[in-house]
Amino acid sequence: MRFRFEKRHILIFLFIFSLFLSQSIYLYIQDLNSSVGYEKLAIRLKEKLPAERGFNIDQISKLNRIVSPDMATYYAFKDSAVSGARQVQVYGVLGNFNEFNRVKLVEGSFIDENDNRLKRNVVVIEDTVAESLFGSGEVLGLEIEVYNKKFEIIGIISTERAAIEKLIDIGSSRIYIPLNTMNNLTEAYIGNVEYKNERSNLDIDVIKDKIALIGNVNNDFLIEDFNIVGSQQRQKHDILLFVLGVYCLYVLIRLIVDIIKHIVSYSKDSLEDNYFFEMIKNGKRVYIKGILAIAGILVLGFFIWKKVSFKFYVTSDKIPDNPASIIQILSMVTKYITEFVNYNYTHPVYEIKVYGFLQKLNTTVFWVGLIFEILYLASIKGKKSGKIKENINVLLSKGICLIASVWISVMFIYLLGLPVMISMVDVLLIWISFIIVYFYYQGEYLRWFFGEAGKVQEV
């Protein structure tokens, strides 16, 4: 066999790469959320509003008592000049911050409940701050000055980030101190609250009511259920597989219809020269093969449907009140495009920058993958060949291209610093779909099924 490169092989690679990259971005966002993953609800003060519109410590205590979450974290941030270092961003943290956000401790420990309860002057710093202040990473137990007070260094955090994160502006270096300590030294307003929200058991509308109950304006805050975010990110990968699977099922249905038509046509021709039972006797091989073929196609179709089906989620604000209204549909589309194009990555909280960037990147990857997937499926209807040897060579070439695309995609994704998870079932599904669609559009399948010469209807 001689491998023959075709332009359509590029379409296969771009589709495969987009499919796996979308899944990797989904997994990476989950990893950024530490052990809580996507099962959290975030309350964030809207960008560009003054910090004073956030929560104070007393309001957070009231909100915590009302909501009674299984796990929570609260944090405020302010820019501060640390003696001997450039401008840094000081995070005042309370609760289980490192359970909600990925913290790469190189050495020491993170801020805990006792540090907040006792209002200790302790600090966790990034390794870049350690190098800037001391020229070394061995700084545990040493002190730095924050808000004109001495703070003991109890932990060092690595700033090593994946290559994909370097595409956005990192911003200022960060240090972490107890929120109660920060509030003692300078008035702290909390603009970020995160609750563990297993299976979306916290209702967003109820949370809004509770925020108003403690004296804040609920419209000042963006409330986001990451269970929903996770579903939306995951389904981008699922939709790409779904489109391929549904197209393959469409081809299988047409295949069944053609087999039934062939059997009916054969029966009509046979009845012209034979009685009914003679027709059955003479054509039993045709009928048995036809029944077995249809049964096999149904089993294969069931497998494909089980693999590609998923629960599709769309937020209510993306659904027009009147689906038949062209004006409302255009308005929704315009709103979606405007939100996507005008997204601002200058939010002062690094975690929010990363989440926003990755979610938009995943949307872009999805549309690119969908376009190239459709282009490839359309290209399969191309040149037909009645030669079995040439058909086998074409399929082997596609198989080599598929394997190469998977391997190259894995390498690229790995270089981006993203997690890679390849499902062999997904790869098998893609390969089976390519084979089915290719052979169907070759137009020789009835002869292969029944071993008979005959004209196949144009498709």
TrEMBL record:
A GO CC term assigned to this protein in UniProt: plasma membrane
Domain of life: Bacteria
Coiled-coil intervals: none
Listed transmembrane segments: 239-257, 286-305, 364-380, 392-414, 420-441
UniProt entry keywords in alphabetical sequence: Membrane, Transmembrane, Transmembrane helix
Residue ranges occupied by any MacB-like periplasmic core domain in the UniProt entry: 67-186
Matches recorded under Pfam families: MacB_PCD
Signal peptide region: none
UniProt keyword Transmembrane present: yes
Keyword Transmembrane helix carried by entry: yes
GO MF annotations in UniProt: transmembrane transporter activity
Protein name from the UniProt record: MacB-like core domain-containing protein
Organism name: Proteiniborus ethanoligenes
